[in-house]
Every structure is written in C-alpha cells, then in structure tokens.
Write a structure and sequence with these properties.
Elements lengths: L3 H45 L1 E2 L9 H9 L2 E6 L19 H6 L2 E9 L18 H8 L5 H4 L1 H18 L4 E3 L3 H13 L4 E8 L9 H8 L2 E5 L22 H13 L2 E3 L5 H10 L4 E6 L13 H9 L3 E4 L3 H4 L4 H15 L4 E3 L8 E2 L7 H9 L4 H19 L4
Parallel strand pairs: 1-11, 2-3, 3-5, 4-5, 5-6, 6-7, 7-8, 8-9, 9-10
Helix pairs in contact: 2-14, 7-15, 13-14
Bound molecules: zinc ion.
Length: 406
C-alpha cells in the first residue's frame, strides 16, 4: 500500500508532467504559427503572381531610348495585397519600387483588393463563398480589424502605401490632386526614380453598404473605385456574378457622390448593365482600369466593343491588360496587337495600360522589363506619338482633367 506522501509525490509529478506537456504543445503551436507567418505568404504569392520563364527580351536601342523618354503610367496593380517589402527588389511577384524604377514607371494606380471568394472564375461567382482574403489577412498578420471588415482592409492597404511613401520620399509620392501630379511630374525631371502613386479600390464592397464610407475612403486618399470585382455586391451586378444586374439604388448613390468628389469610376469587372447604367448616370468619363477588348480577345473577362466605344466616346480610358484571360495572346507582340486593335476601334486618345501586375495573374514580363512593350509597339508600326499616349500620356491627361484640382 502506498503512503499518502507517495500519492502526493505522484500527483505532483503528474501535474508537472501535464504542465510540461502543455508548454511543449504551446511552444510547438507558436513555432508552427511563426513558420506559417514567415513562409506561407511568399509561398502563396509565388503561386499567384507568376512571370513566365523566358530568356531576356531584346529591346532595340531605339525602343529603349524612346521608352526612357516617355511618361509611363499603369492603371492597375495589386501589390499592396501581398506581404513583400515593396521598397526592396524581390525575385518573385511583378512589381516593387526598384523594379518600377528599372521600368521607368512614372505613375501607378495602386489598387486595394478586399474580397476574393474561393473558386473565382470568369462566369459566375457566389459572393458568399469562403473569402480567401480573410485567410490571407490572418496569415500575413494584418490588424485584427481587417479580418472581418472589407473597409478596414482597403484602409490598411492604403496606409501601407502611405507609410512606404513616408519612408522613401525620393522613390514614392502619393498623388491626390492635379497640382500634386503636375508638381510630381516636374520633380521627375530632376529625380527620374520618383514614382507617383495613386490609391484605388477594387470593388465598391469596400464601402460595406455605407455611403459615408465613400467620403472616408476619399479622405484616406482613394481617387478611383472599381464598382465591382468578381461577384455581385451592394452596388450592382458583376460581369462575373450570378445576377448580371444593373446598378442598385445604393450603386446610384455611390456614382453620384463619386462624381461630386471627383473620384474616378472604374467599371472593370462590372456587368454590362452596370456599365450602361453608369454611362447614363455619370457626369464624368469612366475608366476600365484593366481589361481586354472583346473583338480582339473573345473572353468573358471583357465587355463588348460597342460598350467600349461608348466609354471612349464619353471621354473615357480603356486600359489594356497583359494577361491571357484579357488579351488572349500574352506575348509582348500579342499585347501590342491588342493595343493596336484598341486604337483602331476607339482612337489613340483612349487606350492606356492596365497591367494587373500582382493581381494573381501570369504575365510574360515583370514591370522591370516593360520596355519590351514599347519595343513591340514600335515593331507593330505605331508612331512614337501613339506609343507615348498609350504608355502613359493618355492616362496622365485623364488624371489632369479628372482628379480634384486641389
Ligand atoms: Zn481585377
């Protein structure tokens, strides 16, 4: 028979064993969480933002000199969604400040993505499917508010860009007005490394159904909002949603208020009905920030040519993408042919670039290699003036006419 002392020693030993096991378990969980935090974001991004393997592009001396003389502007890049330090050159993803400088990018619209339902496709998406950005925001250790709020995700990504600009004022400046854009472009003469960044949102669901959130985003620096993304939202139907509906009453309110605030309306991903409704309602021209043109690339990603014509006739911009689902042939010469098709259809004053770099797409080149597109446009027979307009001139002109004056 055991003495009561032995019992108490045994129970003490087993209590300390339990405590140790719990500590080991907690330590393993912490190590696993750290490993997920450190490794998972890069693994996820490497699978999403892909550059096709290729031998170096040969850019003619003439094309390189022309490229360096141009003001390059891109209407759509999702780099803020990912975990990379954009001040450092990375060997994956499409875009960061050093690579943008190598590509002579002058103006970049940084778009903030806030919701991406699992199984996204070009035909029909369920807005209620599991949202991949929720998981991404947790894995990347974003503030807890972003785990549940789409608006918080947009604001957080915008804050990231503002912080980057504060830390690297020689490389990045955020532009909110026409005069800031004019000053920034003038300063690039002395400092060609300066990138002028604007903030946009991909999908009006970032407003969470609250019209006052629009002013909040505007105050936070947002200057463009894409009304929809891959699914129907409070503003109306997506090109890839179930309903294919037009603008809702809330969507109408948003368009009217965006007009008042001089915010740019982007109808990439909007249903054809939404595009028609916005064309009828908006007092200001529209942008399609990243798209292909149906007549060149018959893809569900692209709205029909007649709608594109109406957008252009209203003074709008059609920013041509460089990935397969939008352009079909994603080689530099294929993209150049798509741009030429766009110029023939809509006129040379309405075509811009909308790369969708870092937007979970596969491209033939990253931003550091974008001079290959200037080279391909020259080979396609476009004039130097037309190339200047497409590669940035049209976009800058549009911003100078449509940003708030001050
Ligand atoms: Zn998109």
């Amino acid at each position: 028979m055991k003495s009561s002392n032995e019992f108490s020693e045994n129970s003490q030993t087993s209590a300390s064993n339990t405590r140790r096991n719990v500590l080991v378990f907690v330590a393993i969980i912490i190590v696993c969480l750290c490993a997920v935090r450190l490794l998972a974001p890069a693994i996820v991004e490497k699978g999403k933002n892909v550059v096709k393997p290729h031998s170096p592009y040969l850019v003619s001396a003439e094309a390189q000199a022309l490229h360096e003389s141009l003001t390059i502007m891109d209407w759509h890049g999702d780099s803020l969604l990912w975990d990379r330090d954009l001040a450092k050159r990375s060997n994956y993803g499409h875009m960061d400040l050093p690579r943008m400088q190598e590509g002579n990018v002058a103006v970049q619209m940084f778009t903030t993505v806030t919701k991406a339902p699992a199984g996204m496709n070009l035909s029909e998406n369920n807005a209620d499917a599991r949202d991949n950005i929720t998981l991404l925001s947790m894995v990347q250790a974003w503030p807890a508010s972003t785990w549940t709020s789409l608006k918080a995700r947009a604001l957080y990504q915008s804050a990231r860009l503002h912080r980057l600009a504060n830390e690297h004022p020689q490389s990045l400046r955020i532009i909110k007005t026409r005069s800031e854009l004019a000053n920034g472009l003038a300063d690039r003469v002395e400092n060609p490394n300066l990138i002028l960044g604007l903030v946009g949102a991909e999908g009006g669901h970032a407003l969470e159904g609250d019209i006052e959130a629009l002013d909040e985003l505007h105050n936070a620096g947002f200057r463009m909002i894409g009304l929809q993304h891959f699914f129907d939202n409070e503003l109306g139907g997506s090109l890839h949603g179930y309903s294919k509906a037009g603008l809702s009453d809330f969507g109408r309110q948003v368009v009217v208020r965006m007009n008042q605030l001089n915010m740019i309306i982007d109808v990439s991903h909007s249903s054809e009905k939404v595009v028609r409704d916005v064309l009828a309602l908006s007092t200001r021209p529209l942008v399609v920030s990243h798209t292909g043109i149906r007549g060149y690339c018959d893809s569900e990603r692209n709205i029909p040519d007649d709608l594109m014509k109406q957008i252009a006739d209203n003074g709008g911009i059609v920013a041509v993408g460089i990935w397969k689902e939008a352009i079909c042939n994603d080689s530099p010469s294929g993209i150049a042919k798509g741009i030429k098709y766009g110029i023939d259809l809509l006129g040379e004053n309405h075509i811009s670039l909308g790369t969708d770099f870092d937007g979970a797409v596969t491209t033939a080149f990253d931003v550091s290699e974008i001079a290959t597109l200037t080279d391909a446009l020259l080979k396609e027979g476009l004039s130097r003036e037309q190339i200047g307009k497409v590669m940035g001139g049209n976009g800058v002109r549009f911003l100078m006419e449509n940003l708030p004056t001050r």
